[in-house]
Amino acid sequence: MITFLAYVLAFMGTFPILITFIVFRISRFLAINKKKSFLMAVNYTTILYFISTCVIWYTLSVHNIFLYGIIILLLLFISSVFICWKKYTDIVFATVFRFFWRITFLFFFVAHLLSIIAGLLLYIIRYSG
Question: Which residues span the membrane (predicted)?
């Protein structure tokens, strides 16, 4: 049972795009609105992209990048507070946190895709000749 759980967690960390699609399809089946289903998938899989990106960069560079990820999260939160303050002139924590969570998903989704491309390119360069 523990090995099955380890395999499921490893699969979730390795393929967060597929997990996002699965969560979207399940929420789309349960909900009516496509936008709400997409936002639900974004909310539930953001942490997977963060962990997956940190693990991929650790594999590529053999340096622990988790602290840099935390620093990036803090900078994203500070910029989210600043943007919401400029837009609404009043800081509501729920709005700021929702905006922060979505911008975190966007940032780490792009970082995940770029790290996969970088990993493939490094693998090709390293083992091509």
Answer: 6-26, 38-59, 65-85, 105-125
